[in-house]
Amino acid sequence: MEGLEDFLETIISLLAGVSLSAATGFRLFVPFLVMSIATATGHMTPAQGFEWIGSPVAITAFAVATGVEVAGYYIPWVDEILDLITTPAALVAGAVLTASTLVDISPFLQWTLAIIAGAGAAGLTKGMTDVARLTSTATTGGIANPALSTMELFTSSVISVMAILIPLLTGIVMIGLLGYAAYKVWRFFGRRRRFR
Asked: Smallest Cα–Cα separation from 79: which of 5, 128, 22, 137?
């Protein structure tokens, strides 16, 4: 019975991590800030070695980084540059976030799951937002980009908070979202190949 409970706890932790990782595809630092606050207030216990994430220094750093990132996405063309920077960074962030939620498992399994599930989730949602921004810039000259930025910020915030409060439900929803993201990215690049 204890083994089953441990397994379920690992699954729920993994779903929380994948959800937080998916949120980095919308805004890189929002999930870190939410997790940092949740850890500091006792709403979440990170994996061993990640206790620093709830420190006052970490909260301040993530808050400043979030503010800079959010502001940058409202500046024309700067948002495109930010996408170039945050796309590879999201993969690393996704792996770190998922690893930080996986408690009481071997380091090898922890990081294997983090790299596959965490980085994968972040890559898919980031790919979807990159496609959306490229399409918006191409069709509206960037006029619609601020509205897109607002929607991305809202989505990242909601997913991050829900990942902490209701990880099981959020994780199930995220599986569906990741499937949709994979379809959108595949369709975008498939269409580009046809027009070559």
From this structure: 137
Q: How many CA atoms lie within 13 A of 57 on its CB side?
A: 2
Q: What is the pLDDT of residues 126-157, one digit of tens each?
A: 999 999 998 888 898 889 999 999 999 999 99
Query: CB–CB of 137/80 below 8 Å?
Result: yes
Domain that holds residue 29: 2-189
- For the chain, where are the alpha helices, taking DSSP H only? 2-24, 30-40, 56-72, 78-101, 107-113, 120-140, 145-165, 167-194
Inside any domain, residue 196: no
Total of domains in the chain? 1
pTM of the full predicted structure?
Answer: 0.92
**Tokens read off for 187:** 């369709």
